[in-house]
Each structure stands twice: as C-alpha cells, then as structure tokens.
Structures
1.
Amino acid sequence: MVEHDAKLRGTCGHCHEMAELVRLNYAKLSLCESCFLKFVERKVDRTIKAYKMVKRDDVLLLALSGGKDSSALLHILRVVAPEVKIMCLHVDLGIPSFSQECRKRAEEMARREGVELTIMDLGEFLGCTISDIAFLSDYRRRICSVCGLAKRYIMNYVGSTRGATKIVTGHNLDDVTAILWDFYMTGELLEAVKIQPVTQPLHVKSLPRIKPLIELTDFEIKTYADLKGLPYASAQCSLGRESKLNRRKKLMNIIESSRPGFKHTLLKSHVKRVTPLISKVRLASEPYSWTSCARCGMPSLRDLCRMCRLKDELQLKLKV
Ligand code: SF4
Ligand code: ZN
C-alpha cells in the first residue's frame, strides 16, 4: 500500500517532473514511482558496497520465506548484483494456512526470478511442526525463538552442505532496531553487538550472514514489493501476532512518528559508535568456546547442539 496523502500533490523531489507518490518522512523526501524504485535499489546497492557484503564469486543462500522482505530482497539482488549466484531455501513450518500461502508465494517468486529453490519440510526434519510445538505449554510463550532456532539451523545446515559461501536474509531496519531496543534497555550490550549488517561465523560449519535490507523500513519494502507486483504472502502467522518483536516494532513506530529518523540514527550509532567499543570488551571476555555437536557436527557450545537437544526434548514430550 502506497502512502497516498492529500498533501502529496507536488512533484517528485528527485526528477522534479512526475507527481510525487511516496512520502519518506525520515528523509524529508517525496518521490514519484520510478524514482522511488530506483532509490530503494540504490540504497541496497550502497549498503552491499559499504559493508563489502558480496563478492563476484559468492554463492548466496537466500532465506525465501514467502514474505515481502525476502521476495523484495531476491528481486533487488537480481537487479543490483545479477552476476552473483543465488540459491533459495524455503522452510515449510507447517502452520495451517499460513505456511501453505508462504510456500506458494516462495515458489512463485523463485519461478519469476528463475532461481533454484529448495524446500525443507520442518515436519519431516523435526518429526513435528511449529504448530505441534506451540501446543506444548513449555514452548508456547517462546515459540518464535524455537522457530528462529530451527530456521537458523536449517539455513546453516543446507548452506554448508550445498556449497553456499554466505547466507542472505531479509532483516530490515524495523526488525533490527526492535531487537536492538530490547538489548539496550536491559544492558545486554555483548548480545547487542552480535546484531550487525554482516555477521562473521565462529565455526567452520556456520556461514557469514548478510542483511542487505538493513537500512530499509518495512514501509519502503512493502511499497517496493507492491509497486513491482512481487508475489508475497500477506497473511500473518497467528502464533506470533502478539510476539515481543511485533510489540517492540509498534513502540519504535510511535517514537519514529514524533522523531523522524530515529530508527536510522539508532542503527548508525550502534554500528559506528557502540560496536567498536563493545567488541573489544567482548573479545576480551568471550566466555564461550564453539565446538562441534557430537551428533550432527553443527556448531555447538555443549556436547550436543541446541537443535539436537530440542529434538530430544520434543521426542519425549510428543512421543514422536
Ligand atoms: Fe515463526 Fe514466530 Fe514468525 Fe510465526 S511469528 S513464523 S512462530 S518466528
Ligand atoms: Zn546437533
């Protein structure tokens, strides 16, 4: 949905010819359709270059969820880095109706862009779906973190076995600042500095992760996807509707509405000012030492990785 505002009757702030269509308050800028689409693509291109995210010989494994972010990410990468090889992975979480729509849109999107798509069925991989897990009282409140753990594990597993050099995800400015807010509020700065545009791996079987959409907002990405007519699932996952992340996003939007540019400033300060200071402390006090899971060989801090322990717990609880 494009922000049609009664006051938007002037001309585009870039070309000064076409009628303005999209207002970006944080940039004090109104753009026509064509200039807005170029603005988004240029921004992603600049982010990729600024953080040296992609090399010509990279093989990217893109997490194609079927949502607006990953659909837009795939399309923009094909525009700004057409020479880079991209493989897509969709994890079917088994959430009734929501997962079916997401899977359908991911398949449409991969076909549209002519890229290879691998589908992993969580029910087959884990022996149960995210919905099955959400029925268990022990997991209901933290279902999104269980879901995130499963998706990260599968991405790393598939990426490292299929020859990918990097994992690329559609995390955007709203996602990242909502997470950062919580870490700053609770003083968990050692955790906060793990949130970066590029995350380097700590184990041979984990891959670098890049977030080319990190400087774009939810609104910009949705508007881009709509104007380009990209397929994406509009349904929301019923399990996470009231998740902590969504509540934080709402809070960020309230602050942003009275202080336009707040989210961009938070991200910039985090990356440029806080990270260099805290990283030194983190390196000196790193209490963890990564090893390989005794069962699956994937990165772990204990004898068994979190995923293998989760599988064991679920087997007991669900008798799968
Ligand atoms: Fe998974 Fe939570 Fe997202 Fe639903 S909202 S898909 S449970 S992370
Ligand atoms: Zn394991």
2.
Amino acid sequence: MPRTRILKVHPERLDSAALQTAAELIRAGKLVAFPTETVYGLGANALDAEAVRAIFRAKGRPASDPLIVHIADFGQLSQVASEIPPLANELARHFWPGPLTFVLQKSRLVPSEVTAGGEKVAVRWPSHPIAQELIRLSGVPIAAPSANLFGHTSPTTAQHVYADLHGRIDLILDGGPAWIGLESTVLDLTTSPPLILRPGGIPLETLRPFVPQVTLSLRYHPESEAAESPGQMLRHYAPRALLLLFEGEGESLISAMQNIATEYLRQGRRVGLLTVDEEQEALSLPGCEVLSLGPRHDLPTIGRNLFAALRQLEEKGVEIILARTFPRHELGLTIWDRLYRAAQGRIVRV
Ligand code: TXA
Ligand code: MG
C-alpha cells in the first residue's frame, strides 16, 4: 500500500517541483490524482496496460467501464484515435480544451484495458493548466476516470480524493476546487447521428448549432445490467446516505420536503436537505442539516457545489438526504442526471 502524498500546486505557478514529481510517477507507471476543470481525475500512463489496470484496482471499478484518455494538444489526438472525422475537428476548434469528451475509433497504441476491450476510445483535452502541464511533462496521454471510489460521488477537491483513495494511490496534486464541478459531456462521434452518452459541462443546447442532429442517449440501468452498459448505471455518483429527489415548485415543494423530513426525524433518523438560497430559510427545520447549492437560477454555481454538498452532508452523518431537483435544460440536465443517479431513481413528484 503506497502512502498517499498531497502536494499543492498553484494553477498559475506551473514550474513547481510537485509537477515534475507527478510526471515522473506517471512515467514510472504510478497513479497520480490531479485537478481538471470538471472534477479531479485519477491518472496513469494511458499507453501502459499495467498502469491502467492499477486505476481499476484503486477505484474498485469493474474492468467493463472504459476510461477517458486526456491529451494536452490537438496533435496528440492522432496518437490515440485512428480516425478523426471533420466534425471532431470542428468541435475541437470550438470546445477544446474544455469539458467535452469525444468517442472515436481507437488507435492500436491504446491498450484494450483503457477501452474495456472495445474498439472505441474516449478522448478529452482538459483546459485546466495543471492537467495540461502534467500531461505535457509526462510526455504521454493520461487515462483518468474521476478520482473517487467506484460508484461514489465525484471529487471536486484534493480532500475528497484523499478521503476515498488514500493508501491506494501515490500522489494527489492539490490545485484547489474544480471549477465546473460536474464531469465532461461524452459525445460519441462514431455514430450517426452523434450521441450524447453522458450530459456534462457542455450543454446539449451549446452543441446543437454545430451538431444539429445530436441526440441524447441517456439510459439508467439497474446494477444487474451494468456490464452491458458501461457508465450508464443507475447507481452512480451516490453518497452513502439515501437520497430522495423532489420534483415540484413553490410552496407545495417546500411543504412536501418538510413533511417527509419531519416524519424521518420523528423516526430518529438524521436528515439533510439540499436546496437553493431562495428556499433555504423556509425549509429550515430544527435538527435538520439544510445546505444551499446557490441561487436557484445560477446553474453553474449549483453544478459547482453539488458533489461537495453531497459529501458534506455525508460527513455530518446524515442518513437521508432530501434534495430538490432542477429543470432539465442547459446545465440543469447535467445536474438532474447526477441527482437522479445519486437517488437511484427515487423521485417524489409533488
Ligand atoms: O470530466 C470528466 O470527464 C472526468 C475528468 C477527470 O476528465 N472524467 C470522468 O471519467 O468523469 P469517468 O471514468 O468517471 O467517466 C467516464 C465516462 C463513463 O461514463 C464511461 O462509460 C464513458 O465516459 N466512456 C469512456 N470511454 C468510453 C468509450 N470508449 N465508449 C463509451 N463511453 C465511454
Ligand atoms: Mg466517474
């Protein structure tokens, strides 16, 4: 078991020894967690099958769920993908570096461990300077899933990574909180029409002008069917507490959440409420943890705070979380998707 070190790196001071150390570890086949603009990733040399297998072991992730390969310039794409369709070029011009992942045909250099045995590879060029510099210094593309234990809430800080993975990985680069707080959008460009396999940091509405036919392909499979549908499991991003998702508006939403919270409190359960600034006061109940994700219409702020808030409630020992949901457009769809998976589909419609 490695002792997990945490080294701080300032996103604007990249000449640090910490980054050199991290790059050496990657080249030596070790595991390094690092910040990206979306969430923290757990990185290894994407061209080293043994190092990639270590990622799956550290996370407890089934080998059937493929990894995203991270690159640090457009030229590196042809190293990992065998075909680059014109649409990938165009989308890359607009959205790379950034929170958009392409699924393309893989090159022979990419070991089958990365792609879970498949012929397609997911690739992303992150915009976070620490991620970019780590890839550049390592000199290899870096395979990286989110740096959490399999099925748990994605990490948006180095402390979240440490809580899940200490003793299992070699190093965590601490570059402060992730900016977006939600994972990248995964877009399959090998199909016609192109399919969004996972909503993420780039909303559907933003892609549509460039990909008019783009289609959402969201499936929520129960755990038993997981092997056939990598990454589309219903139970994902889940806190250790039970989560109930409330869909509704205004007074009736607030009183429904209060009633159920009161009922659980009466049963002696520890309850947490996840809400928005505008409803926080009305929702407050003695004995209940109430957290706001931000102003109701400020979806970027709500997205940035979501995973951290779930972990915060978990740390307070909350057993049941009641969360309000959000309209399914723009970044709201991504927020809805993460809440729905964390709730394992348990929705209360008010
Ligand atoms: O923002 C992100 O994407 C973060 C940061 C670290 O880059 N990474 C991330 O990785 O969220 P992970 O492993 O937690 O999620 C990757 C998603 C999964 O849903 C996986 O099934 C899908 O991408 N994926 C990866 N390779 C794929 C492939 N070849 N075909 C289809 N889906 C793929
Ligand atoms: Mg993940």
